[in-house]
Amino acid sequence: MLDFTEASLKKVLTRYNVALEKALTPEEAAEELYPKDELIYPIAKAIFEGEEDDVIEGLQAAIEAGKDPIALIDDALMIGMGVVIRLYDEGVIFLPNVMMSADAMLEGIEYCKENSSATPKTKGTVVCHVAEGDVHDIGKNIVTALLRANGYNVVDLGRDVPAEEVLAAVQKEKPIMLTGTALMTTTMYAFKEVNDMLLENGIKIPFACGGGAVNQDFVSQFELGVYGEEAADAPKIADAIIAGATGIKELRDEFHKH
Predict the structure, then answer these.
(1) Which of 1, 24, 183, 215 has an alpha carbon 20 to 30 Å from 17's alpha carbon atom?
(2) Residue ranges per structural domain of the chain
(3) Residue among 175, 181, 183 at smallest CA distance from 154
(4) Which CATH class is domain 124-255?
(5) Where are the alpha helices (DSSP H) in 115-162?
(6) Which pLDDT band holds residue 22 (cuts at 50, 70, 90)?
(7) Tally of helices (H runs) and strands (E runs) in the chain
(8) Cα–Cα distance between 43 and 101 in angstroms, integer?
């Protein structure tokens, strides 16, 4: 006879991990991930909530208590953003939440820099742009926000950027990666021109492309192309590069879905 008592059902749910899927609010889910340090906790929480004033207030208190301003970027701001990114990846929160948190984190970084004579270290530089002829920059703005939130120095060239300007920026900044977004099919072909210009000048960095008009098959046609299906793939591709995956084939093996 089947046992449908509360105790029996609870055991079954726990066994199959359903108990962990309890209806937590985003705030409750974040609460379980915050650091316990009494100085770091309010900063991380303010980042999650996207409250810029509270971030600055928390940083000020931590600095007055003896914390190093630059160290707080990694030890508090990035910790808070890590909570945001994890919950976004798990589908608990959504892109507008990430954007608000990223803005709050960037304000916090500027505050830390203003209160220190030292220069914060970044993971690396990424150049971002929207394809020539395309004025739709929402996707690019999301990419830049997520990259900055993950500790990268971003050189944002804006929208409708000629291939020559992209090349010049790459030559000047020497980034670990270039990103391009395009919303219209009529503009995505500019990526092939950028790819060819880079190769002609002996530059073989990964060129991560995405956007509403772009698909994996198209990006795979040019030598440096790596397809990012979602904006959140950009920092993951960059992380893979600094972890040693510099080959285009290696990146495609990891990030191309089919």
Answers:
(1) 1
(2) 23-115, 124-255
(3) 175
(4) alpha beta
(5) 138-149
(6) low
(7) 13, 5
(8) 11
